[in-house]
Amino acid sequence: MGIIQQQTIKGSFYSYLGIAIGFITFVYLQPKALLSEQVGLIGLLSSFSQLFAQFAILGFNGTARYFPFFRNGEKNNHGYLGLACLVSFIGFLVFIVLSIFLKDDIISQDAQKSSLFEQYYWYLIPLTFFTLFFNVFDLYSRMLYDTTSGRILREFVKRIFILVAILLVFFNTMPFELFMPLWLLANILPTVQLALRLYKKNQLKLKPDFHFINGDLKQKLINISLFAILTGSAPIIIDNIDKFMINDRFGLSITGVYTIAFYFGTIITLPARSLYSIAYTIIAESWKSKDLDNIISIYKKSCINQLIASLFIFLGVWANIDTIMGILPGEYSSGRYVIFFIGLAHVIDSAAGVNGVILATSKYFKYDSLFHLGLIGVTIAANLIFIPRFGITGAAIATAITYFVFNTFRYIFILIAFNMQPFSYKTPVIILVGLVAYFCASSLPDFSNYLLNIITHSLAIGIVFGLSIYFFNLSEDINSTIKGFFIKRLKR
Predict the structure, then answer these.
(1) Is 194 left (phi over 0), alpha (psi -120 to 50) or beta?
(2) In CA terms, which of 64, 247, 444, 489 is 20 to 30 Å from 48?
(3) Taking Cα atoms as reference points, which of 316, 362, 354 lies closest to residue 459?
(4) Domain boundaries in the chain?
(5) Are the C-beta atoms of residues 348 and 405 closer than 8 Å to each other?
(6) How far apart are CA 469 and CA 463, in angstroms?
(7) How far is CA 491 from the centre of its chain?
């Protein structure tokens, strides 16, 4: 997979560095430094800003499907970035108006009765602005085959700044009231840094080229943007609707518990995010050149590689669940099975590979919008059913069900429309190997030292799972990467 493999590995490397920092920050320090209500506030502000930023971009992120037609380095890609910024700024102005008029409605809901949320409500303006334009600059960078810069800034650099701020609170050198501006600054800096990076590479050209956009292309951009408003916002809604509903039913404190537990699910998605970023560009180019063989190759390899990566992380987390619960304060114990079901949901989603990218960049992108519309309905219905019965664990169960149903429909559609079937005998073998690795790790004795527990259980998972994947040759990419690594070392 060439460039895909290279950038996925590079992106994942920095993502995992971010995991290490994130674990220290969000799992160990934050629950001890902040009240659960304060953790809930941060989670809620992040969720709202992501959702508002997605709507404010007005679906323009969907036009990446047509970027191959804009691509021309000598002509600044015909002003694609400038057009994206113009559309996004218009969307942001609409958001500001709505945030003013809907402020009382949002705060008056049961979910946001807390005076803490009302106190920091206006943080949503700068948060949404910089989240929006980070998404714009990151999209443009990815279209230029730079999928790692945005990921490094968001997953690694931003977390370092947040870690420093949390440490100041943890050691009682700074109150929460001063922490929040620093937290806001940490969310602003990645956008500024990414813009500066584009400027240094002479790629920050903000003048749209309206002469290039003829009537046919203009209509295509409008059509796909309208559908992308739905397809782009649906994943954000799905990832955050549970927080809104939990907050509405239980308040900020329980939302804080759910936010910390949900973090472990996001860890599992990191390898997939790196892949999707670069795969979107490659698959869009492949559709343009009608290279179906390349698309099916990426589809098959993505399913295998992402299943291996996500299952490995999931097993590592669940094998250490007792230690994780021991590290967290007692009030977070109700998040135990949230971690399990959110993790399972993301394993399912990762194992489905780049099915969403294939649909979004194909002529059937409108059907993907319908799938997303149905997915929102399933998500809301599942949460309404399971949250009253099982609390925050019910929200996690609803997420797992939603991802399974959604990816099943996508799989069937791609199979019928393109005759592409990505799975093989290797899929159940990988799952079986994972179960064996987990059994071996869970059979180990527990030690009184948390760090020793994590090291021994993680090593057991890594050795059994990793060696089995390699010696059974379950992934050509993983084996070739390992062999290439050792060959380079031997040549030295």
Answers:
(1) alpha
(2) 64
(3) 316
(4) 251-492
(5) no
(6) 10
(7) 38
| DSSP letters spanning 398-437 | HHHHHHHHHHHHHHHHHHHHH------THHHHHHHHHHHH
Structure tokens at 370: 């319908």
Residues shown for the chain: 492
Q: Record the pTM.
A: 0.80
Distance CA 395, CA 342 (A): 9
Q: What is the distance between the alpha carbons of residues 59 and 434, in angstroms, rounded to a whole number? A: 39
Supply angle C-alpha 266, 272, 273, rounded to 5: 75
Using the 8-state DSSP alphabet, how is residue 445 labeled? P
Integer Cα distance of 340 and 347 in angstroms = 11
Name which of 184, 195, 183 is nearest 150 in CA terms: 195
Q: Which two tokens stand for residue 27?
A: 């799992």
**pLDDT value at position 111?**
47
Residues 6+ apart with CB under 8 A from 31: 39, 260, 328, 329, 332
What are the Cα distances from residue 282, in Å, to 13, 285, 288, 292? 21, 5, 10, 12
Provide CB contacts within 8 A for 201, sequence distance 6+.
Answer: none
